[in-house]
Amino acid sequence: MKSKQTLLNVALGCLLAVGISGCAVAKTHHGHKTHAQEHAQEGAVQYGDESPWAGNYKAVTDDGRTVAEIHVDTTGETYIDGNQVKPSHSGSDYLKFKQETITYTLRKSGASWKDSDAGTSGRILFD
User: Which UniProt key words apply to this protein (predicted)?
Assistant: First the structure.
């Protein structure tokens, strides 16, 4: 166990070297998670000025019927048929979210949906 003085020196060094917000990054080397890592696990998505996924989408069946209308606003808030949902996973090239048994995945290379209960799937089109 480190002494209080050692811990104070580490904390002070962290503040002086990288600033208050960078302190969380320094702690990651000791097994602690940064705030960004914690929020990512909770499904919270944070973007810069505008979400790369901002826009309106339609989830459609193979024969063109609309399954859901999807809206992602400029802050990354996601709505399915007007109801807000939280993304379950996200990365630089995809955004995944779920409503009941349907999982929706937006990708730069193409978007799709899958209903795990009904065993159906289809495309998501940019509207």
Answer: Signal
